[in-house]
Every structure is written in C-alpha cells, then in structure tokens.
Amino acid sequence: MKIPVTGFVMDSGDGNSDHSHKLYITSWNGNPVHVHAFSGVTSINDGHSHEYESWTASAPTGVPHVHEYHTFTSYDQGHTHLIQGTTGPAIDLPSGGHYHLFEGYTTINGCHPHSHAYRGRTGNEVSSG
C-alpha cells in the first residue's frame, strides 16, 4: 500500500554525520499534519523534581490518531531524564481543535539512581505545515 506524503528536508545544522538532515512532513495521505506543545513538572523523587517542555511528533489532522513524544528534562541535581511515549487518543475541545493526555515514567538516572512520574495534557493542535 502506498500512502502519499508531502514535506521537505532541511539540514539539521548539528554537524552529526549520522543524521545531518531532518524530515518535516506537511501532509499524510492527503490530510495536513499537526503537532501539540506539552510541558510540565515531574514528581518529586530523591528530593527534587524536573521541568520539561517540547512538541509532539506530527500526526494527520481530521482522523483518529495519537502522537509520539520525547524530550529531556531540565538539568537538576547534576542530571537529566528522558521522557518518551505515546499520547492517548484525541479529545475534542468545545471551541474546536483537540488535545491529548500523556503520562509515564522517566528514565532512571542520577547519582542515586531514580526515576520520576509525569503526566499532563497537551495544548491544542498547531499546524506543522
């Protein structure tokens, strides 16, 4: 099965020879794509918490979908944690658009190895095209 996809490729500018370009998809199977902002503060563990913020991966607009996400937490107590996962399904907003719920646990890091719980809801959809 072939799915028509449109987008563009840009040099990532990071000098990493393994991944020197980034692909930005603007439509998937004829549907424009969108992203969501997400942010929050982790649970307190080992005497501290971490902040995080980023954007979800793109997903098609107007069809049932979820989004992948990943980011690193703020640098606190000498370390960061990776946050990654998949959002829940879209939840419609009365004023139009939608959001997604997300939750999980960070990677285990730190001088005293530990993880943090996190949860939240994304912002409303934003066109990524």
Secondary-structure blueprint:
Layout: E1 5-11, E2 21-28, E3 31-35, E4 37-41, E5 51-55, E6 59-60, E7 68-72, E8 82-86, E9 91-92, E10 98-99, E11 101-105, E12 117-121, E13 126-127
Antiparallel strand pairs: 1-2, 2-3, 3-6, 3-13, 4-5, 7-8, 9-10, 11-12
Could you explain the architecture of this structure?
With 129 residues, the protein is an all-beta fold. It has one domain (32-127). Helix content is 0%, strand content 45%. The chain has strands spanning 5-11, 21-28, 31-35, 37-41, 51-55, 59-60, 68-72, 82-86, 91-92, 98-99, 101-105, 117-121, 126-127. The protein is globular, with a radius of gyration of 17 Å.
Keywords:
129 residues, 0% helix, 45% strand
Q: Uncertain runs with pLDDT below 50, 5 residues or more?
A: none
Strand content: 35-45%
The helical percent reads under 10%
Oligomeric grouping of the chains: single chain
How would you classify the helix and strand content by structural class?
mainly beta
N-C termini distance: 24 Å
Name the helix and strand elements from N-terminus to C-terminus, one letter apiece: EEEEEEEEEEEEE
Main β-sheet description: 5 strands, antiparallel
How would you sum up the global shape? Answer: globular
Mean pLDDT: 87
Number of strands: 13
Rg (CA only): 17 Å
Pfam families: YmaF
Protein name: YmaF family protein
InterPro entries: YmaF
